[in-house]
Amino acid sequence: MRTNDDEIANFCCRLGLTLLESGAEINRVETTVEFIGHKAGLADLQCYAELGVIFVYYERGIKNQIMKIKGHDFNFQKVDEINNLSRQFVENKITYSYLQREYYRIRSKVIDFTLRKKIFAAGLVSVAPLLLFHTNWLNLFFSFFVGILGYLATMVMTGRTKTPYLNVAVGGFVIGLLAMTINLLVSGTNDDMIIFSSLMPIVPGIALTNSFREIMAKNILSGLILGMDATMVAISISGGVIIGKLVVKMLIGGI
């Protein structure tokens, strides 16, 4: 029994939606959706995607499938697993029904690390940049813990507020406050170095990288949106750091 054309287009649209929500670049999303649609029987299926919406069009019956993206995150493990599935389907290694079952399994699967692993990774990332500058052990030691606390503050605020960029601003504030305090209390430390290194877990590195990739692939709109978002995150972090340092200076001046 042949699968209904509308059902194929709807499935392709949902698969592309998951790729976009997981942080896949636009070109990858459009190519994957079209390959699957063509292989499933819709030879004229075309896909157009942006960060906020995905369109799937095919002439047979003149149908359009449109889905709006409600959230956006970076989960490259999902992107990789869906890509592998699509390649296997195009190469006739799996059936269409198996592709559907596996896709829905991947979409519903929560791919994440434990809080303990996240905290430890944040500490390591916070230490790594200072190794390039051959700094002293005090800066390395404090950067490890300041980076963890800044990352935890960002995570807590992410779950408690829907205000854009406030979470990273609070993370920057905590890092600036702690680094400045440590510099005043512990001789031999450098607050600028601690701040520079401790910010690494919350800087928008992936978004900035994807922005350049999208622009190089001539997906200008998506690239500019990602670049603007990364810029706003960077400005929020910087503002939080500045406020944190000013608070310490004000307290010192009042003593």
Automatic annotation (TrEMBL):
<feature type="transmembrane region" description="Helical">
    <location>
        <begin position="193"/>
        <end position="212"/>
    </location>
</feature>
<protein>
    <submittedName>
        <fullName>Threonine/serine exporter family protein</fullName>
    </submittedName>
</protein>
<dbReference type="InterPro" id="IPR010619">
    <property type="entry name" value="ThrE-like_N"/>
</dbReference>
<feature type="transmembrane region" description="Helical">
    <location>
        <begin position="115"/>
        <end position="134"/>
    </location>
</feature>
<keyword id="KW-1003">Cell membrane</keyword>
<dbReference type="Pfam" id="PF06738">
    <property type="entry name" value="ThrE"/>
</dbReference>
<dbReference type="GO" id="GO:0005886">
    <property type="term" value="C:plasma membrane"/>
</dbReference>
<feature type="transmembrane region" description="Helical">
    <location>
        <begin position="140"/>
        <end position="158"/>
    </location>
</feature>
<dbReference type="GO" id="GO:0015744">
    <property type="term" value="P:succinate transport"/>
</dbReference>
<keyword id="KW-0614">Plasmid</keyword>
<feature type="transmembrane region" description="Helical">
    <location>
        <begin position="224"/>
        <end position="248"/>
    </location>
</feature>
<keyword id="KW-0472">Membrane</keyword>
<feature type="transmembrane region" description="Helical">
    <location>
        <begin position="165"/>
        <end position="187"/>
    </location>
</feature>
<keyword id="KW-0812">Transmembrane</keyword>
<dbReference type="GO" id="GO:0022857">
    <property type="term" value="F:transmembrane transporter activity"/>
</dbReference>
<keyword id="KW-1133">Transmembrane helix</keyword>
<comment type="similarity">
    <text>Belongs to the ThrE exporter (TC 2.A.79) family.</text>
</comment>
<dbReference type="InterPro" id="IPR050539">
    <property type="entry name" value="ThrE_Dicarb/AminoAcid_Exp"/>
</dbReference>
<feature type="domain" description="Threonine/serine exporter-like N-terminal">
    <location>
        <begin position="11"/>
        <end position="244"/>
    </location>
</feature>
